[in-house]
Amino acid sequence: MRLLLHNIQYGTGRLRRFAWLETLLRTTSHFPNISRFVRHMDPDIIGLVEVDTGSYRARRRNQAEELANELDFYHCFRIKYPDTGFKRHVPVLNKQANAVLAREPILRTAFHDFETGFKSLAIEVELESVTLFLVHLALGIRARHRQLSDLHDLIAGCAKPRLVAGDFNTLSGVWEMHMFLRATGLKSANLRHQPTFPSWAPCRELDFICYDPSITPVRFKIPQVRLSDHLPLMFDFETGAVKKLPLADDGH
Q: Fewer CB atoms near the end CB (10 Å): N or C, the chain?
């Protein structure tokens, strides 16, 4: 199976370093580029961070649904912020979401809100052979570490092979993930710690795909495409009792 993870920056395609206000501009001219890239990668599972589900930027269209319909995939999404709180009532913010798309049927979906952090959503999606947890963690280091602790407890009760992926915002360095990986027994697919942000001059490893020991890694790649301020991650893997294959950690 192939997992594709991408923080798509709401489909805006704005790449200038400090032009965050440009993310409020319309996205309809750039999102088709993202769709073409996803089709080219031919994934089985897609984790999308920062999806617009119908603000004026996307001309009231839901990017997750639009891409799922185009690929004929199953999908789920949810606004990134808890049901209670002011962010659900602020224009644009109340359309900002994360989403999971899958070629095979989604058996179960659960949405978990961490108690700390402005970004606080974890999406749990159960497929036939694997369970995926998609996250977008907080910018503040204290909130982020609390979220990692809560994420550890969340995935501990999962019976199926686990994938944990998302934008972890490890702004202080990859060391932030070490304790989480040791405690959970997960491994990072990015063995060489290749940076993923910013896409025009990568210097920070913010995005991760982590996998359960029962999952056999086959190939990992970071496609060098500038469709967002984050580079995408691709991970090929197998589940079940299969022969161990060599991992090709391909950065280009």
A: C
